[in-house]
TrEMBL record:
The lineage of its organism: Bacteria, Pseudomonadati, Pseudomonadota, Gammaproteobacteria, Pseudomonadales. This is C4-dicarboxylate TRAP transporter substrate-binding protein. NCBIfam families: TRAP_S1. Residues 1-26 form the signal peptide. The keyword DNA damage does not apply. Keywords: Signal. InterPro entries: DctP_fam (IPR018389), TRAP_DctP_sf (IPR038404).
Length: 358
């Protein structure tokens, strides 16, 4: 134990860069593991976090971001941050389903698909619920803030139009997590591959439809090989967080911890504004051919969307039971999450987004 603690202390010590020998520490530079390239709205949000942290701390704290999996791939980031290979990183619950089961509550399809609502609900849940805070601590990490994929939509090739849940039957489809399980339940033929392979799979006919996100359609140029997009606004992947090594966190002062959390909270507003704006831009450009083919946008009715969430019930119960088996109060956490989603959705409906208040 003594050796382990000593190694962890040494890992934290490696963060600190001395201006000259014998001088006091001038800056803490946190090594950050990011698996995606430095482009797009989420990369801008991470860079915003880095810039704001440096500015707010007066230069005392900064990020050394390793983009594109150069330091750690998604599947290795949680282990790398908990071991001190990186001081901070971006984690997805789907890549560590057992260790990050607490974070996976954000991956369950819910009607509240608004990015700001989802991230705000997750942020408050993860920073106030003691069970969930302990779950992160047990993995030697601390939750800092949240990302989201934005709502899931489905893009399809020529001759395929998805207007209802029944239209998925018999189609070769790519989806992930609980979304894939639900589509399997209704008769879709699921094909599994990484998102970087979506363009080729649609182009070659390996699949006729693929679950994705509006901002990703633009980034991965999939409108070049599709003819329609089912605008389903089917939940969102919010089991998607920024974490910090627990020992690094514990060695920070209370003021420094509060500063990092506040910058993380501010980042949510910045990111939500960016992706909501970008998503609307993509919706407007898809039918024009500006992004590739002239892609039809099929907006699902509230009645058809309701069918999607009716299919979620058994998977919600399975998540609750899995949490209970792991020693958590699954129902209480789920109920709290639902209350927070309702709280922030009501706030948007009545007051608008924070950036709209001038």
């Amino acid at each position: 134990m003594f050796v382990n603690k000593m190694l962890k202390s040494f890992a934290f010590g490696s963060l600190l860069s001395l201006a000259t020998a014998g001088q006091a520490v001038a800056e803490m530079s946190f090594r950050y593991a990011e698996a995606t390239p430095n482009r797009g709205s989420r990369a801008e949000a991470l860079q915003y976090f880095a810039d704001q942290l440096k500015e707010t701390s007066g230069g005392d704290m900064s990020l050394d971001i390793h983009w594109g999996g150069a330091l750690l791939k998604y599947s290795a980031i949680l282990g790398g941050v908990s071991a001190g290979t990186a001081d901070m990183g971006t984690v997805l619950a789907a890549y560590a389903p057992q260790k990050m089961r607490a974070l996976s509550v954000g991956d369950i399809p819910v009607p509240e698909s608004d990015p700001w609502v989802g991230m705000r609900a997750m942020y408050e849940l993860m920073t106030t619920n003691q069970q969930l805070q302990q779950a992160f601590s047990d993995n030697d990490v601390v939750y800092i803030t949240n990302y989201t994929t934005t709502p899931m939509q489905f893009e399809c090739t020529e001759g395929v139009r998805l207007e209802s849940l029944e239209d998925f039957e018999g189609e070769r489809v790519r989806a992930s997590a609980i979304y894939a399980k639900i589509l399997d339940d209704v008769g879709a033929n699921l094909v599994n591959f990484t998102y970087s392979e979506v363009y080729q799979a649609l182009d070659t006919g390996l699949v006729s439809c693929s679950g994705g996100y509006l901002y990703a359609m633009k980034a991965f140029k999939t409108p070049e090989v599709t003819s329609s997009v089912a605008l389903m606004n089917w939940g969102q992947i919010s089991g998607f967080a920024m974490v910090m090594n627990k020992w690094t966190w514990d060695d920070l002062s209370a003021d420094q911890q509060s500063m990092i959390r506040q910058v993380g909270s501010n980042m949510i507003d910045f990111y939500a504004q960016a992706v909501i704006s970008e998503s609307q831009e993509v919706i407007e450009k898809l039918p024009t051919g500006e992004l590739g083919n002239k892609v039809e946008v099929i907006e699902w009715s509230d009645e058809e969307r309701a069918k999607l969430f009716d299919q979620s019930d058994k998977h919600i119960q399975a998540w609750i039971e899995d949490m209970n088996k792991a020693g958590f109060d699954g129902q209480a956490i789920w109920d709290e999450y639902q209350g927070l989603l309702e709280k922030y959705q009501t706030r948007v409906n009545e007051e608008g987004y924070p950036w709209q208040k001038g």
